[in-house]
């Protein structure tokens, strides 16, 4: 679920490479949004459905008869959760309950991955954050993900489901949505370089995130479902960087001076901010054997290069 998203597209590639038959749940839209999975369409099966519609989830599982289910579907853009808090809860919280109920009804042996988020740590209670750090979400999105996290744990404990939550820190790629800050910056750099604009309006340059590469993070999701016992894991690089550092690396890589182009736009300041995230993925390293392969500078330059190439074309 969520196959049309950033993570869904990388996960589908990984599962195909591992020899899986891949089914993806998609909701009907008036225009196609398959740009991330276009190259996979002849090797996967898409099934219509929506997190809001319990019956569609049950029918999708009956049709696909999966052994593993990855629930990556969500309203994932934090600022939008203040605009649509109720819908965010319906998708991200009750939607997960619907997924878990569908699993119980159709086949409780299906292994379930739930996409939890470092946004749950919000106003962080300790640095770095581990699986045991208390949550203090700072947005309706973060609150919705805390519900989803605990309902997943609860269904595991109540019904003996093999259900795991991956607490993933920010992960990015050339397939990241254009509104998230990494892609907004790398796309902005490419547009400036192509002469299409001169300015890039941003919000809080001091916010710090633990940013990794999405391709590495979907591998961790898969590894979690291959364990003997279900458990929850933090997935992070263990390094944090500010939005300012992101901007500096991206502009410099394209031969631009960011101070000539970046302007502060108050429209992008959030009602409540998550100032500093940094994860401790020791448990995943020890138990899954997972570690990231792309560092921060490598990630940013990969994304800038991809956007420059796109505008070059
Ligand atoms: P994304 O690119 O925004 O993709 C979200 C996916 O969810 C899309 O396929 C979207 O479909 C689908 N979706 C949304 N609402 C739906 C609904 N009502 N019914 C069915 N499908 C629906 O997000 P992502 O970056 O790949 O993230 C994947 C998951 O990980 C999300 O749950 C996100 O909250 C979580 N997460 C992400 C990060 C990160 O840094 N990327 C970190 C921690 C957790 P459409 O294409 O139709 O919109
Ligand atoms: N989007 C955006 N746009 N963010 C900006 C901007 C801007 O113009 N200027 C500064 N920022 C700051 C935000 O205030 C935030 O502190 C940081 O950049 C990262 O913002 P996003 O890239 O939008 O990501 P996010 O951290 O809010 O949420 C992402 O990561 C979560 C995991 O921690 C999303 O992928 C969530 O779905 C995910 O759960």
What can you tell me about this protein's structure?
By secondary structure, the chain is α/β, with parallel strands linked by helices. It has two domains: 191 residues, Rossmann fold (3-Layer(aba) Sandwich), CATH 3.40.50; 88 residues, Alpha-Beta Complex (UDP-galactose 4-epimerase, domain 1). It contains ten helices and twelve strands. The protein is globular and about 60 Å long. The chain starts with 5 loop residues before the first helix and ends with a helix. The relative contact order is 0.14. It binds NADP nicotinamide-adenine-dinucleotide phosphate and guanosine-5'-diphosphate-alpha-D-mannose.
Short description:
The radius of gyration is 19 Å and the shape is globular.
């Amino acid at each position: 679920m969520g196959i049309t998203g950033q993570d869904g597209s990388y996960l589908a590639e990984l599962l195909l490479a591992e020899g899986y038959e891949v089914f993806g749940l998609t909701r009907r839209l008036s225009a196609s949004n398959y740009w991330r999975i276009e190259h996979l369409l002849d090797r996967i099966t898409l099934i219509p459905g929506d997190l809001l519609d319990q019956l569609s989830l049950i029918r999708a599982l009956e049709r696909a008869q999966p052994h593993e289910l990855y629930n990556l579907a969500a309203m994932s853009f934090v600022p939008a959760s203040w605009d649509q808090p109720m819908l965010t809860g319906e998708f991200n919280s009750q939607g997960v309950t619907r997924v878990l109920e569908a699993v119980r009804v159709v086949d409780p042996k299906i292994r379930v991955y739930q996409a939890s988020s470092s946004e749950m740590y919000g106003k962080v209670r300790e640095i770095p954050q581990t699986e045991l750090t208390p949550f203090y979400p700072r947005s309706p999105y973060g609150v919705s993900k805390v519900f989803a996290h605990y309902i997943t744990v609860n269904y595991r404990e109540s019904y003996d489901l093999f259900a795991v939550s991956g607490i993933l820190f920010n992960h990015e790629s050339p397939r990241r949505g254009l509104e998230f800050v990494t892609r907004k910056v790398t796309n902005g750099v490419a547009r400036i370089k192509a002469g299409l604009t001169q300015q890039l309006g941003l919000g809080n340059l001091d916010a710090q995130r633990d940013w990794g590469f999405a391709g590495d993070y979907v591998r961790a999701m898969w590894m979690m479902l291959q364990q003997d016992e279900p458990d929850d894991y933090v997935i992070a690089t263990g390094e944090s960087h500010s939005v300012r550092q992101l901007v500096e690396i991206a502009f410099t890589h394209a031969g631009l001076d960011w101070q000539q182009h970046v302007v502060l736009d108050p429209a992008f300041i959030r009602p409540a901010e998550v100032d500093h995230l940094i994860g401790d993925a020791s448990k995943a390293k020890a138990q899954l054997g997972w570690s990231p392969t792309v560092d921060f500078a490598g990630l940013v330059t990969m994304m800038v290069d991809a956007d420059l190439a796109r505008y070059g074309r």
